[in-house]
Design brief:
about 500 residues, two-stranded antiparallel sheet, ten-stranded mixed sheet
Length: about 500
């Protein structure tokens, strides 16, 4: 769901000029080895790229294998502390992209972490360098409302979901039915054994990466060393609670944005009624889609030629993710400019991307989400109950969230929900202490979710950032310092600690 907006950012990375070392004892003989590429003389950081074949179905090895892509950035220090596995979220975000961007001056990791750890990114099955989920782009691009108001619209939504899902199944093959987060956690253990069988796993997970880490800790608690999770996703609630928690989190953060606009000169809408501008745009787009004249129909940046109110609500959530621009994402100043232009009749900056190939990045996020999240509505009435609830608790955004996207756009999907929400299992209590981090006003992962997960993970400390935005590590403030201190030295803050950056 999240579309990175790459921005320039000055950063001085730690550079290692040492030859790329071997990092572990030989893996067990039954494990396939990672097939690494050689570093070139022009690559002083020696980012290794490799591939490994893992079972498509861990319960039935006869299903065959899927190839996973891996990158590894060696520690700068001669005496490394260990290996840190990293997942930036999504589902569908590409770990290898973040690690490779680190070598090009993006501050995705603290310098102490880069000094002491080999940083490893496994691109999840279906994503990035790994075997990709493939779908029909024309079916994906069909404009079908996820908020139906009639039985005809509901049936059209279900038929669209089923047709798109079938195209993904036909083009992807057996992998299509084995994409849930439990599969990814088992892949992580498989790769850990192949790479560093004599070491336990260190892990940094942001957003959806927190679900990945918690799933791993449930399954393999004895193999966890240090785990830091930033932007906590709660995969234990029922459908309506999940929707309400995310919808109200989005709503509260949107109100923080309006307040920021009223007090900050960097907001293009400063001096105007930012909330009034937003509501006016939504009303106009609901009556008639607003043109997006800067969009083109083909290529990497292809986007829709106009924008509906439903699409604006979905895209504004993404544009609220970071109050200040990061190396990968735009900030609230960009959102204010997008709303200002839309109010003048140009919604290009609020337009939704179009799929232009069978390997479009967004397919994997949908396919993974449909296997991870319950979507049990079977009628228009079922879906309208959720919409009516969210419209009451989040009247400005009306329930438009990633949670609702799965609850609506997975109805009729041909793959089963193999890893639906459930309480965390007893294994997670056996894992060593872990650090959880969340902001108070996160438009995607609610502070309510973080608090609920902390109560289910007895050996965890929840650190709260008193601020807005999705995740905190990339801000390189107090929260990032606390994460680095835990990963590098094992130092945990006191319970109920609040930081401000």
């Amino acid at each position: 769901m999240f579309v990175p907006l790459l921005l320039p950012f000055a950063f001085s990375a730690i550079v290692s000029t040492r030859p790329c070392p071997r990092r572990s004892s030989a893996p067990p003989s039954w494990l396939p080895a990672v097939r690494w590429s050689n570093c070139s003389a022009s690559d002083p950081l020696c980012v290794q790229r490799g591939f490994i074949s893992v079972p498509i179905d861990y319960e039935n090895r006869e299903e065959g294998t899927v190839e996973l892509g891996i990158v590894r950035l060696p520690a700068a220090a001669a005496q490394r502390r260990g290996t840190l596995f990293y997942n930036p979220g999504g589902p569908g975000e590409v770990p290898s992209d973040y690690i490779l961007a680190t070598t090009e001056a993006s501050p995705n990791f603290g310098q102490a972490v880069l000094k002491d750890y080999d940083v490893v990114g496994i691109d999840p099955r279906g994503v990035g360098l790994s075997q990709r989920v493939k779908c029909d782009p024309d079916l994906y691009n069909e404009r079908v409302s996820s908020f139906p108001t009639t039985d005809e619209e509901f049936q059209r939504l279900v038929a669209h979901n089923a047709a798109l899902g079938k195209s993904c199944s036909d083009l992807t093959g057996p992998l299509f039915n084995h994409l849930d987060t439990t599969d990814l956690a088992r892949d992580m253990e498989f790769v850990r054994r192949a790479l560093i069988d004599d070491e336990k796993l260190n892990f940094l997970g942001r957003s959806y990466g927190s679900q990945v880490g918690l799933t791993y800790a449930e399954l393999f608690p004895q193999n966890v060393n240090r785990m830091a999770l930033d932007g906590i996703l709660d995969h234990t609630q029922d459908e309506t609670t999940t929707l309400n928690d995310e919808a109200t989190a989005y709503e509260m953060t949107l109100n923080q944005f309006f307040a920021w606009c009223n007090t900050t000169l960097n907001c293009t809408l400063h001096g105007q009624d930012a909330a009034g501008v937003y509501h006016s745009i939504i009303r106009k787009a609901q009556e008639q889609p607003i043109p997006a004249p800067g969009c083109i129909p083909a290529g990497y940046s292809a986007c829709r030629p106009d924008v509906t109110g439903e699409e604006i609500r979905a895209n504004v959530q993404n544009l609220l993710l970071f109050q200040n621009a990061t190396a990968e994402f735009s900030g609230w100043d960009f959102l204010s400019e997008a709303l200002s232009q839309a109010a003048k009749g140009n919604a290009t900056l609020l337009s939704s991307p179009l799929a232009t190939s069978e390997t479009f990045a967004a397919y994997a996020g949908l396919a993974i989400g449909c296997q991870d999240w319950r979507h049990e509505s079977t009628s228009l009435a079922d879906l309208r109950h959720k919409i009516n609830m969210a419209s009451a608790t989040a009247p400005q955004t009306l329930g438009s969230t990633q949670s609702y996207y799965y609850q609506s756009n997975c109805i009729g999907w041909p793959a089963a929900a193999t890893n639906p929400q459930s309480r965390l299992g007893p294994g997670v209590a056996k894992a060593p202490p872990m650090l959880l981090v969340n902001s108070l006003f996160d438009p995607s992962t609610s502070i309510v979710w973080a608090t609920a997960i902390q109560r289910q993970v007895p050996n965890s400390i929840l650190l709260t950032r008193a601020g807005s935005g999705h995740t905190s590590y990339q801000l390189r403030g107090e929260a990032a310092t606390a994460i680095d201190a835990f990963l590098v030295d094992g130092v945990l803050r006191q319970p109920a600690t609040v930081v401000h950056s």
